[in-house]
């Protein structure tokens, strides 16, 4: 019996009751995902002068890594003009802050570069300073800028996806933009040479930023690279066998994964993570940390999102 089969057969069945109210936030985030996609389609083609170095790529450098914030300023401003007013409509609790940011960017376009650089780089001090200057909370600035950037990077992924050669990439972050995966998907492997293990499924990771889907080793932790099967666990909710939580005892991170093997129905991976927020609750209660932080998997913050944004 293969290692992967053994893990499948010994995976813990976790009793699970979906908490009331979680379904209420799904329409808002589904509308947000649609807005990102629609906006990306209207933007100019992604950076055309991205240097491609196969050796650097194979060493783990995402394709967009050489591009500084300046490369994203113009599309960020275009996307913000379209998205910020509509985000305020989708999430009334931050409508005022969305309007403030839109007005600030229209008045001072030079703000785009610092905002892009701070959010992409995770520069907390810069984010706090910018938010204070704009009259926003740091959390709202990050959320709003992240969504606008997601549309910009999605447009870039449309252009660069053919360059992201799967055989050269073995990282747990996106080969296009370096974003963290918000969900994984198991699906049949198309290669005839892998027929004997096809039923186990091929794991692909979905980027939380640009939406790119890339292949990743199934029996390895995307967060820390741990490959010792004794330190990797799989939690499957009782009665919901296609939903699973992949956990790592080394780094204590987890990833939600959908099993779509021998399932013909399509799934929207831009929306699916929020629909599986009940699994985030289970994983966090067991002491694990999400590989990708989202508005719905941050404990008390997730409860606040549910209460204020799903009206």
Produce the secondary structure layout.
Elements: H1 3-10, E1 12-14, H2 26-42, H3 54-58, H4 70-90, H5 95-107, H6 112-121, H7 124-134, H8 138-160, E2 181-187, E3 202-207, E4 213-215, E5 232-237, E6 243-248, E7 253-259, H9 272-275, H10 277-285, E8 289-290, H11 300-309
Parallel strand pairs: 1-5, 2-7, 7-8
Antiparallel strand pairs: 2-3, 3-4, 5-6, 6-7
Helix pairs in contact: 2-4, 2-8, 4-5, 4-8, 6-7, 6-8, 7-8
Q: Give me the strand/helix succession.
A: HEHHHHHHHEEEEEEHHEH
Total count of domains: 2
Give the % helix.
Answer: 40-55%
Give the terminus-to-terminus CA distance. 50 Å
Q: Tell the overall outline.
A: globular
CATH topology of the largest domain: FdhE-like fold
Query: What is the subunit arrangement here?
Result: single chain
Largest sheet: 8 strands, mixed
Count of distinct strands: 8
The CATH level-2 architecture of the largest domain is identified as Alpha-Beta Complex
Average per-residue pLDDT, rounded, comes to 86
Total DSSP helices: 11
Range of strand content: 5-15%
